[in-house]
Write a structure and sequence with these properties.
By secondary structure, the chain is of the alpha/beta class. The protein folds into two domains: about 240 residues, TIM Barrel, CATH 3.20.20; about 60 residues, no CATH class. The protein has 14 helices and 14 strands. The strands form three sheets. Strands 7-8-6-5-4-3-2-1-9 form a nine-stranded mixed β-sheet, with helices on both faces. Strands 10-11-12 form a three-stranded antiparallel β-sheet, with no helix packed on it. Helix 6 packs parallel to helix 8. It binds S-adenosylmethionine and iron/sulfur cluster (SF4). Keywords: 4Fe-4S, Chaperone, Cytoplasm, Heme, Iron, Iron-sulfur, Metal-binding, S-adenosyl-L-methionine. One of its GO terms (cellular component) is cytoplasm.
């Protein structure tokens, strides 16, 4: 049953030095026009009822409160739904947070990245550590009781002690959930250029592994469950929307460059505004790429994604049992309550293990 909706907001004040997500600079009129088209796109689909809605970006918090309301007014949302928006510190104040809480947004994902001011500058972020903490406190005061913080580690020249300092600050805030991603050096970004020029260098593998192990053990000490490779939560605060991705469930994705999964179709929307608008003006879905999955593709996706869920793992069909047993023998998987899950060693080499299923 399709009950998840992802809405992409492709605008940022400025591009961060490491990021290759689809986002552009914009003005108010551009954003209003974009929301008009999002609403038209929603109307091209059947009227589903959503149990999770996720505004991702880009920087969705750049939208006016009225525009967010216009979108929410257009969709059916179940009464117990999780409705998340990604916010950047600096783009939101208390009044905005209070307004969006009142119209049904009940979960925030705040893009912190690090609390280290020098590193924030290197990353090209607009905010400093105090502004990040202030945004978090404003969110609490505005009535949000489900907040996730987004961080990164393995940043240029970052030390284990600096990661530890980020964790100390993170745990002192007690968010219900946090994500922490190891930096990916994306081609085409300023970071990648500086890497090629020898100005920046990739963190040594052993140090990165030490950082990740430290994050996992410290999170446990503070009562967080490590439920997905990069995601941690207090009991019962797993991200419901993102969990649907990992469970290989269907979801509708709308907006520029958004991807979705309906029936046996995985699709990606147009990535240029002109084409996106043009398709919608002509009453056709603004889809750029389609991948129709057969049974084998669906199985591969579900094993690759399912293993990311560290507690649940996977129940492989007959054709994949031998692959799982082989990975178990090598110490990358283990059996738990009839499921195969990543072992401690498997978590450290997760990317390599997951691609074994492709
Ligand atoms: C699409 S961003 C949206 C959040 C919001 N725009 C922000 O940056 O505050 C989602 C998260 O992906 C992570 N991310 C983006 N680029 C990354 C990269 N190159 N390597 C690792 N993580 C990255 C960051 O932690 C970011 O918060
Ligand atoms: S990290 Fe977030 S704020 Fe920075 S450019 Fe990417 S999407 Fe925009």
């Amino acid at each position: 049953m399709l009950d998840a909706l992802y809405i992409h907001i492709p605008f940022c004040v400025r591009k961060c030095n490491y990021c290759d997500f689809l986002s552009f600079s914009s003005d108010k009129d551009m954003r209003k026009k974009y929301v008009d088209y999002l609403i038209k796109e929603i109307k091209l689909y059947p009227k589903y009822t959503y149990n999770t809605v996720y505004f991702g970006g880009g920087t969705p918090s750049l939208l006016e409160y009225e525009d967010i309301k216009r979108i929410l007014d257009e969709i059916n949302i179940s009464s117990d739904a999780e409705v998340t928006i990604e916010v950047n510190p600096k783009t939101v104040d208390f009044d905005f947070l209070k307004s969006i809480r009142e119209i049904g947004i009940n979960r925030l994902s705040i893009g912190i990245q690090t609390f280290n001011n020098n590193m924030l500058k290197i990353l090209g972020r607009l905010h400093d550590s105090n502004e990040a903490i202030k945004t978090y406190k404003n969110a609490r005061n505005a009535g949000f009781n489900n907040i996730s913080l987004d961080l990164m580690f393995s940043l240029p020249n970052q030390t284990l002690e600096e990661v530890n300092q980020d964790l100390n600050q993170l745990f002192s805030l007690k968010p219900e959930h946090f994500s922490i991603y190891s930096l990916i050096w994306e081609e085409g970004t300023p970071f990648f250029k500086q890497l090629e020029q020898g100005i920046l260098k990739i963190t040594d593998n052993d140090l990165e592994a030490d950082m990740y192990e430290h994050i996992i053990s410290k999170a446990r000490q503070h009562g967080y469950e490590h439920y997905e490779i990069s995601n941690f939560c207090l009991p019962n605060f797993e991200a419901k929307h993102n969990s649907k991705y990992w469970e290989n469930k269907e979801y509708l994705g709308i907006g520029l460059g958004a991807s979705g999964y309906i029936g046996n179709l995985r699709y990606k929307n147009q990535m240029q505004f002109s084409k996106y608008y043009d398709n919608i003006d002509n009453g056709i879905l603004p889809i750029l790429e389609k991948e129709f999955l057969n049974k084998k593709d669906i199985e591969e996706y579900s094993y690759m994604l399912g293993l990311r869920l560290l507690k649940k793992g996977i129940h492989p069909g007959d054709e994949y049992i031998s692959k799982c047993l082989e990975l178990e023998k090598k110490g990358f998987l283990e059996k738990q309550d009839g499921a195969f899950i990543l072992s401690k060693k498997g978590i450290m080499f997760a990317n390599d293990v997951l691609t074994e299923f492709l």
